[in-house]
Amino acid sequence: MLHQPACPAPTRECRRLRGGALPGHQGAVTRAAETPIAGVTTRIFRFPTPSPEADGTLTWDATTAVTVEVTAGRTTGLGWSYSTAATARLIDDEFADVVTGRDALDVTGAWEAMVRHARNLGRPGIVSHAVAAVDIALWDLKARLLGLPLHRLFGAVRDQVPVYGSGGFTSLSDDDLRAQVDAWLELGVGGVKIKVGEAWGSHPRRDVARTELVRSMVPDGVEVMVDANGGYGPGQARRLGAAYDDLGVTWFEEPVSSDDLATLALLRRATRCDIAAGEYADSVHYVEAMCGGGAVDCLQIDVTRCAGYTEWLRCAAVAAGHGLDVSGHCAPALHAPVAAAVPNLRHVEWFADHARLEPLLVDGLPPVRDGAMVLADSPGHGMALRPDAERFGA
Question: What DSSP line would sit under 32-82, residue for residue?
């Protein structure tokens, strides 16, 4: 749905900053003088999975992407969240008018206005998904107005972002699991992650057997990682953590609920695996409690769940203050520019469902070479909706 002000203010001409190009960037840098946001457009896309999929605690047969396009003058920024169709209605009803008419360069101010507006709606869940989609679009728009690649605007410390292969759904046959792992190894990834905790921890022997299978496939130097999605109880997680330690597993994600910080901290002391969690973080306060409570060795942050790039960077800074690495959870293409800008990045999750659907949704994706996404020097994040993505419109 498109939102425009009744009498949009005219967009002033962009003018060159004194000094021309910024250091490290050859293109001309321009600054829009009070460039107002003229409209917000939402769309809903639904991408069926090849077959029903499952992890330790959930099953699904499709992924929904809610996209946002924000326009200022002749320039448009794109963002999206993996969420529910209701997120689009929330943006249309609650947030489009909040940002429309604001200066397109004041992204942080727009983010703050949205969060304040959402006070009585509650911050977690689809509210943060909605704010994220708009915030991502606003940062893309700002970078395009300035003629800068988004990762340069954020202050890039790298041009390549390491990824690890992720999927290994509990619903896969062993043959399908082998094929998926082989495909990741062909990309040169430094790690592969599978789902465990099948049916809320009801099949621990199969969990271990599948992990043994993957361990036998990957060469030395490639990490084996497991994700229980909170499917184990505390004692079961401790016992299986010992089994995964014996198999050389280096990453044990959400062995118990990510809300159970005390048990995560206990498991961190009881196992050699790195304990990872944080994908449901919606604010720096959530992250401070998790990091300050000693619950994780590596903090996961999801740009589509934590209210966008603005809060993602703050969450990464909190983790850095506790001496922790961060890992981008899912949405690999969206994480690429912001992950390039934090020194304490470990990697980004090359999640099977999102890696499959993103080429169907947008053009301009960062390619993966030798296990890393390679960032381009095009303005913004470089992505745009594919014209034929409408066939997945919901």
Answer: ESS-B--EEEEEEEEEEEEEEEE-SS-EEEEEEEEEEEEEETTEEEEEEEE
- Is residue 243 within 8 Å of residue 224, measured between CB atoms? no
Number of domains in the chain: 2
Q: Answer with the one of 148, 165, 186 that is the final residue of a domain.
A: 148
pTM to 2 decimal places: 0.91
* Beta-bridge partner residues of 165: 192, 350
AA letter at 202: S
Residue 120: exposure state from Cβ atoms within 10 A (0-12, 13-18, ≥19): exposed
Q: What is the pLDDT of residues 276-333, one digit of tens each?
A: 999 999 999 999 999 999 999 999 999 999 999 999 999 999 999 999 999 999 999 9
CATH of residue 244: 3.20.20.120
Residue pLDDT, tens place only, 354-365: 999 999 999 999
Confirm if 284 and 320 have CB atoms less than 8 A apart.
Answer: no
